[in-house]
Amino acid sequence: MGYKIKDNSNKSAAIESGVTISSKEQFLFFVEEHRGLVWGGILLVLVLIGGLVMFNWLSKQEQEEAWELQGQAQRIYLDRPLDDVERGKSNIQQASGMFQDILEQYPGTLSAKVSSFLLGNSLMEEKKYESAIEAYKSFLQGHAQDHILVGLVQQRLGFAYLLNENREAAVSAFSAVIENTHALNKDQVLFELAKLAESEEKTDDAVQRYKQLIQEFPLSPFSTEANLRVKVLAPEEAQESEEAETNTDSETAQEISETQENQNREGEKKE
């Protein structure tokens, strides 16, 4: 019985030919087999890039338009001639409307954030205190991450509450500034809290606030006034403080004098 020997040379050659195909050639084969899918992916990428470019361009255009409108509104807001009260009121009303337009037409822009604050200020000028309160609260809700400007808005909110005869809410707004580690207007807010306590005849609280202002912000312009108020509200404490400072200065001067005398004696001994 005869046996046939299988010839595997063709398979080996096929395997060897498959192995010798480079990755580049394999990629070209893939592109050729999936031509529609590849061109579709390329087209999608181009559309995305074009969309991003267009979005950035529109955003830039929107921001420029918003800044231009805000500049006009600020000029009108500041144009309040002293000899024409009615014109000043009219300009404030017009500026308020323009600030509101910016918030509605260009939300999310930096100009909208600034306009939100300026809207509250202009409403305060119009004595629309409740509307101003809502404008300030809207700013705080939408821009809580801007810690420095938030402190200023909280202070303005406190003034709006005061003018709207809501002292409790005003104290709460002012206290929020003190708790804000990034706020740069704490000295003024401490002074306002002390004045509030003084007007309510809470002398101890007022003196405590004034002293806190003097200790924490000795170089503040409000510190000078705070010193005067402490002397009026708590003259005995102020006198004791002055005597203590005088004694301290005397002791320091005496120590310096004794040190100089000792140095002189040591110098004479050496000679």
Characterization of this structure:
The protein is mostly helical and about 270 residues long. The chain has helices at about 10-20, 25-35, 35-80, 85-105, 110-125, 130-140, 145-165, 165-180, 185-200, 205-215, 220-235, 235-270. It has a domain at about 185-245. The protein contains 12 helices and no strands. Helix 7 packs antiparallel against helix 8. The longest helix has about 45 residues, at about 35-80. The radius of gyration is 38 Å and the shape is flat. The relative contact order is 0.04. Mean pLDDT is about 80; it is low at about 10-20 and about 55-60.
Describe the structure using short key phrases.
271 residues; mainly alpha; flat
Short description:
By secondary structure, the chain is mostly helical. It contains 12 helices and no strands. Helix 3 (35-78) runs antiparallel to helix 4 (85-105), helix 10 (203-216) runs antiparallel to helix 11 and helix 11 packs across helix 12 (235-270).
Which stretches are poorly predicted, pLDDT < 50 over at least 5 residues?
A: 11-19, 53-58
Structural class: mainly alpha
Which percent range fits the helix content? over 70%
Quaternary assembly: single chain
Query: How would you state the average pLDDT, rounded?
Result: 79
N-C termini distance? 135 Å
**Backbone shape:** flat
Order of SSEs, N→C? HHHHHHHHHHHH
* Radius of gyration from the alpha-carbon trace, in angstroms: 38 Å
- Strand tally: 0
Alpha plus pi helix count: 12
The major pleated sheet works out as: none
In what range is the share of β-strand residues?
A: under 5%
